Amino acid sequence: MSEVPPPARAGTPRSVWLMFAVPFNFAEDFFIVAAVDRSLRADGRAASRSRKLWAATGHAWCGLQIASLLPGPIGVASGVLALLVWAANWTHSSRLRRQLAAPVPALSKEV
Questions:
Q1: Which of helix, strand or coil describes residue 46?
Q2: How far is Cα 108 from Cα 111, in angstroms, rounded to an integer?
């Protein structure tokens, strides 16, 4: 969120710390993913496909972490899948952040 200009932000970068407030974090993660997705859409620099994939893996991770609370094999499998999806989302987040942090090349004026 910090790489998105303030006018395009759907939330504050500080809101990400709410994910550590147990048990609020289980629901808050969905809101954080949605806010970042809206911010990326408003910013317009991230490709639509890339942004949608990021949001899909973010929401999948949120859902799987809740499912991981179920007892037995379903919870264990959900937890393993949640970690894998989280790793994919985190990798994608890093790529998007580098893309957004890169300077925009200036257009040259031919005289």
A1: coil
A2: 10
